[in-house]
Structure formats: structure tokens, C-alpha cells
């Protein structure tokens, strides 16, 4: 049994090669975006972990971030949980706006 790697691209038609190249490019861009997002999340979490919130608005911002992370967990979509998260986010935003006006 040979350990030679077979380059399958040689055996594809031009259209198939273009589609493969496009998929490879999109996959690379996706991986770069995921890495950037991960770095961004690390920075946000460091800022949120800098100390206790000094205002209700900052506490609400932390809660909003955590709820959005929780909502983004892959799995079976639960409409009741999603609705509860949505209502809570709306409440936090509304109450933060009220506090900001006072």
C-alpha cells in the first residue's frame, strides 16, 4: 500500500475545481472570523470581569452579554427559553434606558 497523496483536484472538471476553491476560501474566511470573534469575546469578558458593576446599567450590560452567550449555545431550540431571554433582554434594556434618563 502506497503512502502517496493523490491530488484529486487534477481529476475534477473546471467548474468543480472553482467550486472547491470557493469552498476552501469561504472556510478559511470563516476560520479567521471565528478567531477574531473569539479574541473579541475574550476582551469583552476581561472588561466585564474587571470588577463589580458600579451602576445598574453596567450590571444589566453584563447580564445581557451572558444571556446572549447562553442563547447562542447550540442545541435543540427551545421557544419558551428563547422568549424568556428575549423578554429579559427587553426588560434590562428598558430599565437601563430609564436609569440613564434619571
Describe this structure in words.
- The chain is mainly alpha-helical.
- 73% of the residues lie in helices and 0% in strands.
- It is built from 3 helices and no strands.
- It has helices at residues 14-48, 56-71, 79-101.
- The longest helix has 35 residues, at 14-48.
- The radius of gyration is 23 Å and the shape is elongated.
- It starts with 13 loop residues before the first helix and ends with a helix.
- The relative contact order is 0.07.
List the helices and strands and how they pair.
Layout: H1 14-48, H2 56-71, H3 79-101
Helix pairs in contact: 2-3
Q: Report on the biggest sheet.
A: none
| Beta-strand fraction estimate | under 5%
Q: pLDDT under 50 segments (min length 5)?
A: none
CA-based gyration radius: 23 Å
Count the E strands. Answer: 0
What characteristic shape results from the CA principal axes?
elongated
| Through-space gap between termini | 77 Å
Give, in order, the helices and strands.
HHH
The assigned structural class equals mainly alpha
How much helical structure, as a percent, in the residues? over 70%
Number of helices: 3
Could you tell me the mean pLDDT?
82
Summarize, please.
With 102 residues, the protein is mainly alpha-helical. 73% of the residues lie in helices and 0% in strands.
Which descriptors would you attach to this protein?
3 helices; elongated; 73% helix; single chain; mainly alpha; 102 residues
Amino acid at each position: 500500500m502506497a503512502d502517496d497523496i493523490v491530488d484529486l483536484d487534477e481529476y475534477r472538471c473546471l467548474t468543480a475545481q472553482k467550486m472547491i476553491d470557493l469552498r476552501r476560501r469561504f472556510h478559511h474566511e470563516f476560520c479567521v472570523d471565528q478567531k477574531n470573534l473569539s479574541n473579541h469575546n475574550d476582551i469583552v469578558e476581561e472588561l466585564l470581569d474587571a470588577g463589580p458593576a458600579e451602576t445598574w446599567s453596567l450590571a444589566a450590560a453584563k447580564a445581557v452579554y451572558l444571556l446572549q452567550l447562553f442563547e447562542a449555545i447550540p442545541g435543540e431550540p427551545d421557544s419558551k427559553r428563547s422568549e424568556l431571554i428575549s423578554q429579559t433582554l427587553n426588560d434590562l434594556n428598558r430599565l437601563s434606558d430609564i436609569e440613564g434618563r434619571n
